[in-house]
Amino acid sequence: MSKLNTYVHVHDKDGVSHAFGPDDTVPEWAENAITNDSVWAEAPVKESENSDDGKADGDDQEQVELPEGDITEKWTVKQLTAYAKAENIDLADAKAKPDILAKIAEASKANESGE
Q1: Contact 45, 57 (CB under 8 A)
Q2: 107 and which of 5, 48, 59, 89 could share a cystine (Cβ 3.0–4.6 Å)?
Q3: Domain parsing of the chain, residue ranges
Q4: What is the pLDDT of residue 57?
């Protein structure tokens, strides 16, 4: 079940603005309209992520282009997740940007100290 970590305003197909917050149930049309991945405490599950095509969840993700240079807050959740996967960093249940950044920083510190 998806859950927001902040308040968002989303326009429906008729242009009417709707506000949703952390305690609200976000309808599917609004989930699809929200493009900022960092607003999700628990991101919505897309149909391709739970498909019965024989692939593990996420195996058919599109290629995500990673920015050059150090990881910053400007990176998207998709970019951070792709980076973590490429670097074999276990994100456990981290879904929100701050949690993913913390897991990546934790793994980087562990690598620097030789753990």
Answers
A1: no
A2: 89
A3: 3-47, 59-112
A4: 47
